[in-house]
Design goal:
By secondary structure, the chain is mainly alpha-helical. The protein has 2 domains: 9-115, no CATH class; 150-244. The protein has helices at 9-20, 32-43, 59-70, 86-95, 99-113, 116-123, 129-133, 140-149, 153-167, 179-183, 218-226, 233-239; strands at 192-195, 213-216. Helix 1 (9-20) crosses helix 3, helix 1 packs across helix 5 (99-113) and helix 2 (32-43) packs across helix 3 (59-70).
Length: 247
């Protein structure tokens, strides 16, 4: 039997957004809002492997997902569905009192999904530990937009040029590592860029500026992404051994 992939965090965010909506309407497959959500879920730059295309996030499946929330909603006095996932319950409890933040995240996901070029860029971002674990609070789509922004070649070139003009070298802003010093000509001009803007504040319509970017070594960049919800360049600098901190 063909089974479609389990629901991603992004998809549950969108389902919760509709569930909490005051004008949601009835939870059934004929509800126009559920039909619209089904179409949106099918257009996300997220899941390309769909063994059962016909049933993938169809209105009946979306109805079942919203019914799962009824079972964990203390304000609902019926039973709801009993087959909900652990993630359904965790995310319901996580966002039931943070609906303004949820609305903001969903708005950005919708804006991204309506932009063909942006969707294509996100689809080409490789999977990593964060996307594999699907634990980023704001979801995979915003996380991948973050990676798209910090890899834009034009702004990265300008950031390096500005730093070289000011400091004469490219060093990691966290630990002070210099690729040129360590690898000679092979490392000349090499360093990675990290986007400083927290995922909860990133906007699909915004433009990246030089001050939004930090130059970091590969190791520090990996650590920043490992705890991207709360780790900043400054807070990571405090974690690094004092002898390795950038000056």
């Amino acid at each position: 039997m063909k089974r479609n992939p389990k629901w991603h965090r992004d998809e549950i965010l969108l389902a919760l957004h509709l569930y909490f909506s005051p004008d949601r309407g009835s939870i059934d497959a004929k509800n126009p809002k559920i039909i619209a959500l089904s179409k949106l879920l099918n257009s996300l730059p997220l899941i390309t492997n769909r063994p059962d295309e016909e049933k993938f996030r169809n209105p009946s499946g979306v109805t079942m997902k919203l019914s799962n929330f009824l079972a964990v909603d203390p304000s609902y006095h019926g039973k709801g569905m009993t087959g909900g996932s652990k993630l359904d319950k965790e995310m319901f409890n996580e966002f039931v009192d943070k609906q303004e933040q949820l609305n903001s995240i969903v708005e950005e996901i919708i804006d991204i999904t309506s932009n063909v070029m942006m969707k294509n860029e996100i689809l080409h971002i490789e999977e990593d530990e964060q996307t594999a674990e699907d634990t980023v609070e704001e979801g995979t789509i915003l996380y991948k937009l973050h990676k798209v922004r910090e890899r834009a070649p034009g702004i990265i070139k300008k950031k390096k040029e500005e730093t070289l003009k000011q400091k004469g070298k490219l060093i990691c802003e966290v630990c002070g590592f210099d690729f040129h010093d360590s690898y000679g000509d092979l490392g000349k001009g090499f360093i990675e860029c990290h986007h400083r803007t927290p995922l909860a504040s990133i906007k699909a319509s915004s433009q990246t500026s030089l001050k939004d970017l930090a130059l970091v070594c590969s190791n520090c960049h990996r650590m920043l992404h490992k705890n991207i919800n709360s780790m900043s360049v400054d807070s990571l600098r405090e974690v690094v051994s004092p002898g390795l901190r950038a000056v």
